[in-house]
Design goal:
Oligomer: homodimer
Largest interface: A-B, 28 and 27 residues
Number of strands of chain A: 6
Shape of chain A: globular
Distance between the termini of chain A: 42 Å
Number of helices of chain A: 9
């Protein structure tokens, strides 16, 4: 799976969040990091879309929506003749959103400071995915990045990596497999034999754990079937 | 009440709908017709906002939202220091939306072509009005203007005029009063005495009708009060 991350951030260079995200996926060869600038080359954008399976819009929430720069991209690149009409050029691809906001999660609900949930506020993108015959992924929303503790940042890093590179990030099994693949790549790249051996030991443990979980799931299933009898 | 109509339409000159709207309010001195162009003079925009009580965003629906040109306006003009933070410069004003769309009303619902209602898709503007401490007016949505019959266009014309100029367009009494005022203005401007007399007769009929409706409402209220006893 190849992923195109389209970043729409008017103050990109000042954004520690965007630097954090960029570093998180720097080692993934399947990821194309694509910052939007002032001018848009429609043909080039469509080439990039064609080369990728997952398209991610990554932006800070400005007035409950993406900055104007992304709206211009949508208006210019996704014309009806290309995106719907005859071609449906994005059909079958996935649409992801990585949204950062300076307000807290509890503000995004009825009666609180922002009145609506992100699910509600992002409806236009969901409607668009539906119109384009794309699969709409659950948005990855990062609330108040600046206030995250070290361990929360670590978790976000892995969640973000999976959101961008894991074709099955939403399922537990998909997440386990992804970890296994990451570990295998680390092992392949490692030249120090001692470290290689330690990594292999971790990999063995991970595999054992997965087998144990499979056994437990199987046992649970049997019990549940009996209950349903 | 003074109204600022901010038009964000990339193909304004080709839009018969926009010409129709413009003609509809051409005679109203309380309306400022303001087309957005490529560049935005933030100070000038804020002056215009300051001079008006009702702010209307008027645009065709592009990907379930306003064209990029309006998003840029929001991002640039409504900075936090001006629009929230210290000043809340738009507090107490009204926010209206006039939205045109090429799709039919029945497409905007769950399971239909567009999946969501306009109420849902326009949530970002509603959230913004709330944040700015503005009153959010029920949007005026025009579906498939090109397919409207002559009499539907006539009705739309009056609805639009009221949406832009009537401070109480949502109530029946407010609408009646508005009609009375329009008629009075026609009478004041009319120089031909025969026509003036005919208009005055219509005005008298309108006043009589309003009195009759008041009486009926009063009678209904009494009956309802008895029922509730």
């Amino acid at each position: 799976m190849r992923t195109l991350v389209i970043i729409a951030h008017p103050k990109y260079d000042d954004s520690t969040t965007q630097q954090f995200f960029k570093a998180a996926v720097a080692d993934f060869s399947t990821v194309t990091w694509h910052r939007l600038g002032a001018s848009i080359n429609v043909e080039r954008e469509r080439e990039l879309i064609g080369q990728n399976d997952r398209i991610i819009f990554q932006f800070p929430l400005y007035w409950y929506s993406a900055p104007a720069i992304l709206k211009k991209w949508l208006d210019d690149v996704l014309t009806s003749s290309y995106a719907t009409g005859d071609q449906f050029a994005l059909q079958g691809k996935e649409l992801g959103l990585v949204v950062t906001t300076g307000d807290a999660q509890h503000d995004f609900q009825a009666g609180a400071g922002e009145q609506f949930t992100l699910s509600e506020l992002l409806r236009p993108y969901q409607a668009m995915a539906s119109k384009l015959k794309m699969t709409y992924l659950t948005p990855l929303v990062v609330y108040q990045f600046a206030y995250l503790e070290q361990d929360q940042q670590q978790r976000l890093l892995v969640n973000y990596q999976q959101y961008v590179t894991n074709s099955a990030f939403a399922s537990f099994t998909g997440q386990q497999q992804w970890f296994g693949e990451q570990l295998q790549q680390l092992i392949d790249r490692e030249s120090d034999e001692t470290r290689k051996t330690r990594l292999s030991a971790i990999q063995q443990t991970l595999t054992d754990n997965m087998d144990a979980i499979d056994d437990l799931n199987w046992a649970l299933k049997l019990m549940k079937n009996k209950e349903d009898d």
